[in-house]
Design brief:
Largest sheet: none
Mean pLDDT: 86
Structural class: mainly alpha
Helix content: 55-70%
Radius of gyration: 28 Å
Order of helices and strands: HHH
């Protein structure tokens, strides 16, 4: 059997309001849990308590998800800020090196990248 290879490149991941989406989902899970609590006996009589506890688990896992995506968002912002700072530093050094040339025979008189 031949190994499968992709014919197309994978698309870039979609970026959006990730923190807001996960927070909204977490609120929804906790809301469903609270709505089902008054009917706990009804669920227990029919051996369907897993409905209630699934919503509670979704809410608590959502809290972990909020913590995770907030950390991810902060790391992406730190990385972008570091890249901008490195680019500015590199551009600043290239500009000062080009202006330090004293004439046509100086070492830095070649084309600049």
């Amino acid at each position: 059997m031949a190994k499968w290879t992709a014919k197309h490149e994978a698309p870039e991941p979609l970026e959006g309001p990730v923190v807001a989406t996960v927070t909204g989902g977490t609120i929804l899970w906790f809301g469903l849990f609270l709505v089902q609590l008054p009917f706990y006996g009804w669920f227990a009589d029919r051996d369907q308590l897993w409905w209630v506890w699934t919503c509670a688990a979704g809410g608590f896992l959502g809290l972990i998800g909020i913590w995770y995506v907030r950390g991810r968002e902060a790391a992406l912002k730190r990385h972008a800020a570091a890249a901008v700072a490195a680019r500015a530093e590199r551009d600043g050094q290239a500009g000062s090196a080009g202006s330090a040339d004293s004439g046509p025979g100086s070492a830095g008189s070649g084309p600049q990248a």
